[in-house]
Write a structure and sequence with these properties.
- With 258 residues, this protein is an alpha/beta fold.
- The protein is built from 10 helices and 10 strands.
- Strand 4 and strand 5 form a beta hairpin.
Length: 258
């Protein structure tokens, strides 16, 4: 669990985050959504310790990363996996070498142990025979899966995903969403996803934080969205006819469960 408590951040005179509080729940996909300039990217960077807030706390299972000393923060970061927007793979390294990189940096495992762990996570993301391929030899969707494999190779307690579906076609995006969700549930990870993909919101939004202009505008689940009266949220989520249809279908599904 990650508790965000009264976080504020300004750059000069520009206020980016205004008293943001939220709880990112364990074993669930926690999505941060909002328009460009809403502050969601800054919030994620604060959560992983890349930016220091002006005020507030970011508590990982009760421990505040904002006030941690360097050694404690280093230990915490070894429990954090990160999937970057562009996958951020090393072009000159094979898939196997990319995934093995964190193990080389942060563990004392033997090569045999590292190799075994790499094969385990590559199989988990359906890339069993891709070890010796280079990033230039695989598709964008496969690169994302390599990025996921690298993010989970250290068995993290917390997983951050920055626009995981950026640049992918809808079908591949759906597969990435399903993979991230399954990994989250199976390993009881606290997963935080920064996304513009409204299909992701409706498919895997266990917990959703909607931000506008640095404010927490709305918070709830993908089912709560269906019945929300928040105009800004509805305008943002259901802007297209496709998503209007998805809303109507989900409303029917939710009503049938009652």
């Amino acid at each position: 669990m990650i508790d965000v408590k009264h976080v504020r951040k300004s750059f000069g005179e520009k206020v980016v985050l205004q008293d943001i509080s939220s709880t990112m729940q364990t074993g669930k996909c926690n999505l941060i959504i909002g328009t460009s300039g809403s502050g969601k990217t800054v919030l994620m960077k604060i959560m992983i310790g890349l930016i220091q807030p002006d005020a507030g706390e970011i508590c990982y299972d009760g421990k505040d990363i904002v006030t941690m000393d360097a050694e404690d923060r280093k230990q915490l970061r070894q429990q954090v996996g990160m999937l970057f927007q562009g996958s951020a793979l090393f072009d000159s390294q094979t898939v196997e070498e990319n995934v093995m990189f964190p193990l080389q940096m942060f563990t004392n495992m033997s090569y045999k142990e590292r190799k075994k762990r790499v094969n385990e996570v590559l199989e988990k993301v359906n890339l069993k025979d891709a070890n010796k391929k280079y990033p230039a030899e695989i598709s964008g969707g496969m690169m994302k899966r390599v990025g996921i494999a690298r993010a989970i190779v250290m068995n993290p307690k917390y997983l951050f995903c920055d626009e995981p579906n950026s640049g992918l076609d809808p079908q591949t995006s759906g597969l990435i969403d399903e993979l991230v969700h399954d990994i989250t549930v199976e390993n009881n990870i606290t997963t935080v996803i920064n996304t513009h993909d409204m299909n992701s919101v409706m498919d895997i939004g266990d917990h959703i934080l909607f931000m506008t202009e640095g404010l927490r505008q709305w918070e709830g689940t993908k089912d709560d969205i269906i019945f929300s009266k928040n105009k800004r949220l509805n305008d943002f989520i259901f802007a297209s006819d496709f998503l209007q249809d998805a809303k109507a279908k989900r409303m029917e599904e939710v009503e049938e469960k009652k």
